[in-house]
Amino acid sequence: MRHCLNPVCRQPNPDGHQFCQRCGNPLLLRGRYWAKEVIGQGGFGRTFLAVDEDKPSKPFCVIKQFLPQDLDPEMLPKAIALFEQEAQQLEILGKHSQIPELFAYFIENNQSYLIQEFINGITLKEELANQGVFSEQQIRALLVDLLNILAFVHEKNVIHRDIKPENIIRRRTDQKLVLVDFGAAKVLQQLQRTVTGTRIGSAEYCAPEQGMGKARFNSDLYSLGVTCLHLLTQVSPFDLYAVHDGKWVWRDYLNGNQVSENLGKILDRLVEQASKKRYQSTTEVLVDLDPTPKTSSPAKSSLPSQTSTSITRPIQTYHYEIITLNEQGGIIQRQKGQNQGYLESAEGLNLEMVRIPAGEFMMGAPKNETERSNDEGPQHRVIVPEFFMGRTAITQAQWQIVAQLPQVTQFLNPDPSRFKGENNPVETVSWEDCIKFCLRLSQATGKFYRLPSEAEWEYACRAGTTTPFHFGPTLSPQVANYDGNHTYGKGKKGEYRQKTIPVGSLNVPNTWGLHDMHGNVWEWCLDDWHGSYQDAPTDGRAWIDNDNHSQTNKEWLKGLLNNKSISSKLLRGGSWGSYPKNCRFAFRSLSTRVLKYNYIGFRVVAPSTF
Question: Between the chain's N and C termini, which has fewer beta carbons within 10 Å?
């Protein structure tokens, strides 16, 4: 249905109509946006799920129509100012991948409209109703996600002022939390921070100073803390605070839900009534959420001899753009992406590692996939535990650093590559060279690094997609480095660079932030070569004959290096010289473990226990 936006009509109309059947009002705003269904209505107007007819994919968006109801005429200027202010906030803040982006703000037929990004997901209010109270682990994850968003918001000199479960959406595509509804947000003016303003926000979650019109940055932290208390108990915040005693009694309502002393103290400080006693910044909260002492990289003369998982690394948040191609290789969609991880900075490596969430997928190619090979099947379901993976292939600069570290087993050539460049991927390295690299890196950092299993590699590359490439049904030299003289499917020919290029230089990662998974260099995997997936593991581990070990320690990795009985190892992803069909998710190649060639490189993974 297409809804009429005429305030005195509001007639639903059949799809395809350009004008309202009742009043004749145009159904398309600016000739491109039409309202599909009402998804919200309040005192200031209506919100619609809408469609953007100007874009080839006809994507959903959101129309917010300013339409105040039964409003005191004296309040109308304030209401108009708030609506305009929301557009201003979204223009400033919508560049963050977890805040809706502003597409347009305009007046048409004497009505004000705001067009913004549609977030496909469910609110935490709905999630709480469907799944029950949140666990400590869920609350910690929520806090990290929201605190990183608020750090960005506060950096822009903005207070949200209405944080509550209804205004936090879990996005379906990546399960990230998105903060919405900036209609109550207020820009802090440097000279007006103590001037009483209008009280805005939901009473249950509103900080005391905000209730008196004096919101501060840590007023948002208060609301976030109260939100967590509600999610832990499923009880109204009004009932979690004993007014006569002047204290929070949320622990009385846990009903067996376990909350550690550490998290309890953090929540208590978040919801302090006195703003001066409360956390003053998002950074303070994030520090307390990770109580493990940070340890700097050890000196070369005292490198740890055993793998340790006690070394912690500060959380990094990576923001990027995700590209989708059509069958001809043209870009049809750009969307914001974000993932968290850490920076391995030991010895000056600057190795960016991103979190690959636990999940399951169908490994291999479906029988109807174009140019499928028999060794890409049978498709089988694989469950993969969480791990971390390098955002890019190992660079020549990173290789040189590790090659100069104390030797663990054997010599490493510090400069093996043909196509020189510090930020180009290292190539002309054998599978055995890569294992030696991982052993040295593990010893230097105190964390276990290794090559990915074949299942981990394909799962990470797909990042939830099922088309032959994470970009879509085909490839384009605009987004990958391969032999552009050849095409896949209905794709078009393009540039053939005939060499490697700097890692990440095309700036088109997949949903989880991994660059160059298609092309540039083939990437070694741990697995032995097998001609099909018959009897393949289904738990994400590497398929190595006569091996039942945990695959999570250096001694096991040394054993693989010393076991010369298996000569053929797996390669994935294609290279600068590959046809596009060989760069598909499911395409498998093999080589002897000692082969060194200028189209072969690698990236590393690490378990999630750090």
Answer: N
Residue 407 bridge partners (DSSP): none
* Strand 111-117 relative to strand 60-66, pairing: antiparallel
In a domain, 185, yes or no: yes
CA torsion sign for 274, 277, 281, 283 is negative
Strand partners, 113: 65, 106
**3 state SS of 72:** coil
Max CA pair span of the chain: 85
Identity of the amino acid at 212: M
Neighbour-count burial of 374, counting CB atoms closer than 10 A to its CB (0-12 exposed, 13-18 middle, 19+ buried): exposed
Judge whether 218 lies within some domain.
yes
The amino acid that residue 214 corresponds to is K
For the entire predicted model, the pTM comes to 0.54
* Whether residue 94 is found in the same domain as residue 145: no
Residues 88 and 221 grouped into a single domain: no
The whole domain housing 107 covers: 2-117
pLDDT for the residue 410? 77
Q: Which residues pair with 316 in a beta bridge?
A: 341
**What is the Cα–Cα distance from 562 to 556, expressed in whole angstroms?**
10
101: nearest Cα among 111, 112, 114, 113: 114
Q: What is the pLDDT of residue 299?
A: 31
pLDDT of residue 610: 40
**Domain assignment of residue 331, yes or no:** no
- Give the pairing of strands 158-159 and 111-117: unpaired
User: What mean pLDDT value characterizes the chain?
Assistant: 88
Query: Looking at residue 463, what DSSP letter applies?
Result: T
CA–CA dist 145, 176 (Å, integer) = 8
pLDDT at 73: 66
Domain count, the chain: 3
Q: How many CB atoms lie within 10 A of CB 411?
A: 9
Judged on CB neighbours under 10 Å (0-12, 13-18, 19+), 38 is middle
Give yes or no for a contact between 569 and 588, defined as CB atoms under 8 angstroms apart.
no
Joined tokens for residue 589:
């190649």
What digits encode the pLDDT tens for the residues 314-330? Answer: 788 999 999 999 999 99
> Which range has the worst mean pLDDT, 43-47, 136-140, 159-163?
43-47
pLDDT tens profile 537-546: 999 999 998 7
In a shared domain, residues 80 and 216 = no
Q: Is pLDDT of 192 > 70?
A: no
Report the amino acid identity of residue 508. Answer: V
User: Which helix (DSSP H) or strand (DSSP E) does residue 403 occupy?
Assistant: helix 396-403
User: How much is the pLDDT for 551?
Assistant: 66
Please check the confidence at residue 297 and state whether its pLDDT lies above 50.
no
Residue 423: Cβ-neighbour burial (10 angstroms; 0-12, 13-18, 19+):
middle
- How far is residue 333's CA from residue 307's CA, in Å, rounded to a whole number? 43
Based on the fold, state whether residues 108 and 125 are members of the same structural domain: no
Q: No. of H helices and E strands in the chain?
A: 12, 25
Do residues 254 and 395 share a domain? Answer: no
- The larger pLDDT score, comparing residue 272 to residue 42, is at 272
**Pairs from 465-468 (Cβ < 8 Å, separation ≥ 24):** 465/510, 465/511, 466/362, 468/365, 468/369, 468/370, 468/584, 468/585, 468/586
**pLDDT at residue 33 above 90?**
yes
Q: Strand order in 315-325's β-sheet?
A: 315-325, 331-344, 351-356, 387-390, 605-607
Share of the chain above pLDDT 70, in %: 90
- The residues assigned a catalytic role are 162
